[in-house]
Write a structure and sequence with these properties.
Length: about 350
Amino acid sequence: MSELDRHDTIRAVHWRGDRLSLLDQRRLPFEETFIDCRSAAEVAQAIKDLVVRGAPAIGIAAAWGVVLAVQNEPQALDQALRTLRSSRPTAVNLMWALDRMQGVGTDPAALAAEAQAIQDEDLAANRRMGELGAALLDGGGVLTHCNTGSLATAGFGTALGVIRSGYAAGKISQVYAGETRPWLQGARLTMFELVRDGIPAKLIADSAAAHLMRSGAVQWVIVGADRIAANGDTANKIGTYQLAIAARHHGLKFMVVAPSSTVDMATPDGSAIDIELRDPAELLGIAGQRTVVDGAQAWNPVFDVTPASLIDAIVTERGVIHRPDRHAMQTLFAPGHG
C-alpha cells in the first residue's frame, strides 16, 4: 500500500447489482450503517435526507438511481429523472450526471456501464486534483470547511483529496476543520475521515476561524464547491464566503477544488445560483434535540456564494485557474475544450 493509499480508506457509495448501498452519513461518526435503495424514489429521498451528500456523490448516487428505475420499470424513466432532479437544487453535479444518463437511452446494461464510468471517472479526477492542488502548497497548516472527502465523492475527495495528497507529500503539518453548523459535516464527517486515515487534525468552532487565521497557524483555506459559475463565482456550504473574506484580510490563500462537472458555464455568475433553503428546524436544535426557545424563528440557507475575486485558485482535473475570472473560465471550460 502506497503512502497515499494509507490516507484513503473510505467509500460511501456501493452498487450491489440490484440495489444501491449508501453509508448513512447522518449516523457518523458513531455508527457505520448502510441503507439499501432499490428504486429511484428511494435514492432521491436518501439525497434529500442527507444520507448521501457532497456534490459528486449526489451525482453518482443519482446515476445509479436511474439504473434502478430502468431495472424496475423502463417506461418510468422520465418520472425517475424528474424525481431525482428535484432532490437537491444547488449541486450542478446532480443535473450533469442525470443529463449524461438520459443521453444513454433505456438499456439497463448501457446505463449501468455509464453510471460506473461516472463513478470511476470521479475517483480518477479526485486523484488528479489532489496532485495539482498539493503542488500549490508550500508547507504549514490548512483550514477546510464542510466535508469534501471520500464521503462526498467516489473516493479520495476534492478539497480533502488535496489535503490527503499534501500530507502524503510532506507539505501539510496540521489540518484544521470547521465544525460546519447546522449539520456538523466538518465535526462529524471530516474529522472522522482525517482521524481514520491518520492525518493530524484539530476541530475548531466555525466562529474561531478568523482568530485562527490571525495566529499564523494556517497558510491556505481549501474548500470544495457545489456549483462554479462562468465567471468563477463559487457556491459552497454556508460559511465558506466568510472564510474567503477573512482569508483575504489576513493574507492567506484560498483554494476551491472541484471536478469539471461542478462547473456550470450556463450560470453567468453567482447571483444566478439557486441557493437551497432547508427546514429552519435544522438550525433550532442539534441531533434532533431542540436548543432554542419555542416560538423562535430561523433562516437556514445551506450554501453561500464566494465571489471569484476572493479565490486564489480553482483546481479541477483539467487544470488550475489562478485568480479566476470569466476569461480564464472560458479558456478552460468552453465547449469542446478538454
